Amino acid sequence: MGAIQSLLTDPHAPHHLNPSYEPVEAYCAMLESLIQKRYKEALAYCTPATSQPCRRIYRNWHPDDQQRQEKQLEHIQSRFLLSYPAEKYNLVREDDHSPVVNPFFNLSGLFFCATGSPLHSDMDETGAGAGGPVATSPYGKTRFQVEFGQLQRVLFPSFKLYFADHYKVVGDWYIQLIVVPSWNVLLEEQCVKQGMVELDIQSNPFFYRADDGQYWVSNSPKLWMELFIGCDTIPTTDLGEIVDSRLHEKVRKTRNRLSEQEERERHARVIENVAKDLIKLAAGLRQGLGPMDRELVDLTYGLSMSRTQMGVMQSGPMATSPSDLEQKEESREE
Fold this sequence. Notes:
Layout: H1 3-9, H2 14-17, H3 23-45, E1 51-53, E2 57-61, E3 71-72, E4 79-82, E5 110-113, E6 136-137, E7 142-146, H4 148-155, E8 159-169, E9 172-181, H5 185-193, E10 197-199, E11 207-209, E12 215-218, E13 223-229, E14 233-235, E15 241-244, E16 246-247, H6 260-286, H7 294-315, H8 322-333
């Protein structure tokens, strides 16, 4: 039993003596010390600091993988990736605990790999060229890849970067960084609560932005840089591209199917995250943040209508279909 389990089960531990001391606090306090230790180990592993331009970030999936695969809205030609509860590998290390898969709150977002092929390699099959995404993946042949700078400008113009973890799997080393959009209130709270190390986006040895806007990633030997991006959904219709890649010999698969209750939980998490962020965005609107224009009116109306439609769905059979509402809007315009 690791030190954290011992702390949480020890009847003499502080959270048992003081009813107001929650187990989550004990867990996060212990986890903070582990993160600090792993951060120092990651710094040592990446010394001397060497890096290369990050051409694309990317994630793959198998055709039967319903968790990772790209999804499409039925009524419009809009495709996207949807977050799901992160899965933790069982690693051979003392006190094997993950700040991303915390038993008290599983972070919501999507993992991308930022590691590229060596700069001196031949042109790879993805078309990204030397330094672009590696040609193989253990997670499947279908790949979504996008320039991080493009994704960042569209979905999170302002963000924070946190160090989360550093670990080894069969000879390769991994570093996990958390990308926290400024509008994602819950994720920032969870990062801070666990004592993750906030990084200077323009000056750190792992993943950083140069003065010209180009993002660079560490190319220390046998190192994989994983970015956990705090977006519940990432549109793929107009961002990045879908390409084919080769399947790595060491295939990894997430669960191919989810039960109905797991799907309900997955969508409920997204709604909860949205609800919390909307409170902050409403406060920003009152403070004069952002433009007051037609787009804001349309977004507000859309949110209100979505809330109404979900309320009707949970109240019983829908008396008025969305098409009926659209026809009524058209008659008003006439």
